[in-house]
Amino acid sequence: EQILEVENKFLPESHNITAYLNDRIAYLFPDAGLTVKVAVNEDEPNALSLPNGTIIVTKGLLKLLDTAEELDFVLAHEGMHYVEGHVQEIKDALKQAKERFQKNKKNSGKPSPADAVRILGTLRMSEYEADIRGVLRVAQKKINPAAARSVFLKFQKYRKKRGQKDSSDVSHGSDIDRIVNIGIVTQLIDYEATSQEEKPLPDEIKTFADMPSDKWLYEKIMSPEDDPEIENIIQKSSLNEILLTIRKINMKNMKMSGKLAKKCIETIKKYIQEKLPGHSKKQYQFVLHMILEIS
């Protein structure tokens, strides 16, 4: 999660969207202690479950999905990875493979092909199990499980449009296999929830998902409301996001408050000193000049 914190900017815990997602995961898994975070600057649709009970969903995923039921299934799938101990199973399989590799290296100098099959099998089965148990969980909660199928159809369409393979990677299996598996489960059992009408995602989620990350930062900075989290958001923003935002404000002949301008200056100065030590003075002076123009 610390690596993800560095590479991604997460929505604040107090944000309405974060609160909505955490309400949904608490409804699906009341006693699991799971939390959800939204990666703001990741446009690839994805979600993952971490060993500490944190579920990460990307802005790209929120853009891909259309209904609350689709999002519930994704959360149920990721939650099942945690409650079923899949992460630990995979860690154990990798540990055993490493031990066997060291042993084989001493004897024959070659790794065992069986280990690759075991690991792949463990990964694939954990995905299929999370799919099926995720369907069962949403149905148990009176949420239409048919939404699970539409999630994978959207992933399939997304990948096809970009000329990608019919799978995120070999460990997850193909989209069509997972669609068939889910279709069989939902057809074999007469779920009352399949008659439930699906609801669109809240407008705030879709508006946020459609925003480029630099525009989202711009909207937050220029918001008439005094957002207590804005300084934190600026601090976690990338240099490129801040520069694009400053340029946009400058081009529109608008002004930024002195307090926020100061925070931008501090953040950019720190970034340049750490990342671009050879160009610190020149880069800093250029950015400082731009900020002073709009503050």
Beta-strand percentage? Answer: under 5%
Along the chain, the helix and strand elements come as HHEEEHHHHHHHHHHHH
Main sheet? Answer: 3 strands, mixed
Structural class: mainly alpha
How confident is the prediction overall: mean pLDDT?
76
List the total number of helices: 14
Strands of the largest sheet, in order across it? 1-3-2
Radius of gyration: 23 Å
Terminal CA distance: 35 Å
Question: Are there runs of 5+ residues with pLDDT below 50, and where?
Answer: 1-7
Cα shape: globular
Q: Helical content, roughly?
A: 55-70%
What's the number of extended β-strand segments? 3
Layout of strands and helices, then pairs:
Layout: H1 2-7, H2 16-28, E1 35-39, E2 47-49, E3 54-58, H3 59-64, H4 68-83, H5 86-107, H6 113-140, H7 147-161, H8 175-188, H9 203-209, H10 213-221, H11 230-236, H12 239-251, H13 258-275, H14 280-294
Parallel strand pairs: 1-3
Antiparallel strand pairs: 2-3
